[in-house]
Design a protein that fits this description.
This protein has 22 helices and 2 strands. The protein is globular. By secondary structure, it is mostly helical. The longest helix has 24 residues. It has a two-stranded parallel ribbon. Helices cover 67% and strands 1% of the residues.
Length: 445
């Protein structure tokens, strides 16, 4: 079967002007932040657009590009019309056979290049199969070589997991996401990279994938699995000599330790993460790690140390985002800052202050990111219940239940279960009774 050749996007190249691909990618990320969007644009993405490999951007990039170049359409930017790129879906619906390499990913917001990356032959096919597409997962061949195709598939799997988690939570994703992780590490163990730089990228990609799968385990209540995945990522970071990956692994390890009541470990892991990140040009990364430390101190009941860490975190956060901020930190904006501070005050028993920060997190959160909005509201409901505002807590809890139609997160459901127990003595109130009845009908944890 003949394959169509990519047509370079000269219009997009002209718009880049004298900026390097990296500089232009940084401008795209800045523009995304201006409109509250989250994209993981880098020089490779710009190169794929200009080469014609990406014929039409996903909807997030479309919003950013139209914001950057007001008055221009996608066609003006050199892209193909979306209905032409999506034509395979219509053909499949009509009963025409679709080649295995062109199976469509079910999320319409994924770009054409992302779909190809998942469905490329060989071991990269695992990414598609693991996300519920029904393809066969081939085992890596002993001594087999791997290159850009496999590395790109691992990196895009990480991005896809983050995208789907933002929208839907972890419960449905965890088991599906474990298979590409096993394959990535099997490639490292039994395969040979075509060049050293490819091996280095696979090491880092596998580590980030371990952290993503670990987070899915964490959020879905599989805490021992999460601990194992985080430890695997930390070991990978040290083998690769990558301080950014090491800092990420320590951040997640600290988060898990706090969630499981190992507060001293949470403090130590967060401090180790700060040491790993001290030479990285990302104040926001240091701010997040310092907030992790504050959470550990709060769990230990050390208000003075917690307040000192919160002060450092705000100072670092106040330096603003930067182009060197890690891609995985796209979730860490002002809403998350407020939510993490709310957790600190909650652990210290200062319920009014906790509720104030949780409310700020809810108000500031982009409603498109339903999982985080549900999480912040669940935190607010719990703080209101503990702070003696049962009716308001119940009303907030009902709004969480509204979101749980879309979001599958055992962590959030467990938080609601705790709130329900706190509200049970107030069951005579209309709002409380409505919340308790509705939660029971939805399936209590």
């Amino acid at each position: 079967m003949a394959t169509s050749r990519a047509v370079p996007n000269l219009a997009f190249r002209r718009l880049r002007g004298q900026r390097s691909p990296g500089e232009f990618a940084a401008a795209v990320r800045r523009a995304a932040r201006e409109i509250g969007e989250q994209v993981a644009c880098d020089a490779r993405y710009v190169g794929r657009v200009e080469s014609g490999e990406i014929r039409c951007p996903n909807y997030a990039y479309e919003r950013v590009f139209l914001h950057m170049f007001p008055g221009l359409s996608l066609t003006d930017l050199g892209f193909a019309a979306r209905e032409h790129v999506r034509g395979r879906r219509a053909r499949a619906a009509a009963g025409a056979p679709v080649p295995a390499s062109q199976i469509t990913i079910r999320n319409d917001e994924e770009s054409d290049v992302l779909r190809r990356a998942f469905m490329t032959g060989g071991t990269a096919t695992v990414a598609a199969a693991s996300l519920g597409l029904g393809a066969t997962v081939p085992a890596p061949r002993p001594g087999g070589r791997f290159g850009e195709t496999e590395v790109h598939a691992v990196e895009e799997t990480v991005r896809r997991i983050r995208l789907l988690d933002d929208r839907h939570g972890a419960d449905r994703l965890y088991r599906m996401a474990a298979e590409p992780l096993r394959t990535a590490y099997a490639l490292l163990d039994t395969g040979t990279a075509v060049r050293r730089s490819t091996a280095d990228r696979m090491q880092v990609g596998a580590g980030e994938l371990a952290l993503s799968v670990g987070w899915l385990a964490h959020d879905s209540g599989r805490l021992d699995d999460a601990r194992s995945h985080y430890a695997e990522a930390l070991a990978t970071a040290r083998v690769a000599g990558d301080p950014a990956l090491e800092a990420h692994a320590f951040s997640n390890t600290s988060f898990l330790a706090r969630d499981t009541g190992r507060y001293r470990e949470a403090v130590r892991a967060a401090q180790a993460g700060q040491r790993a990140a001290r030479h990285l040009p990302s104040p926001r990364l240091l701010a997040l790690l310092t907030l992790r430390e504050a959470g550990g101190w709060a769990g230990l009941g050390d208000r003075v140390a917690c307040e000192e860490a919160l002060g450092r975190a705000h100072q670092r956060f106040g330096r603003g985002p930067g182009d060197a901020d890690p891609e995985w930190m796209s979730f860490f904006g002002e809403p998350e800052l407020e939510a993490l501070e709310a957790q600190c005050w909650s652990a210290l028993g200062d319920w009014p202050r906790a509720a104030m920060h949780a409310h700020r997190a809810v108000v500031l959160q982009d409603p498109r990111f339903t999982r985080n909005l549900a999480l912040y509201r669940a935190q607010l409901a719990a703080d209101l219940a503990r702070g003696g505002a049962p009716e308001e807590a119940a009303a907030t809890g009902e709004r969480v239940l509204d979101l749980l139609v879309q979001v599958q997160s055992s962590r959030i459901r467990t938080m609601l279960a705790g709130t329900a127990r706190l509200l049970a003595p107030y069951a005579g109130g209309a709002a409380v009774t409505s919340f308790l009845d509705r939660r029971a009908g939805a399936g209590a944890v």
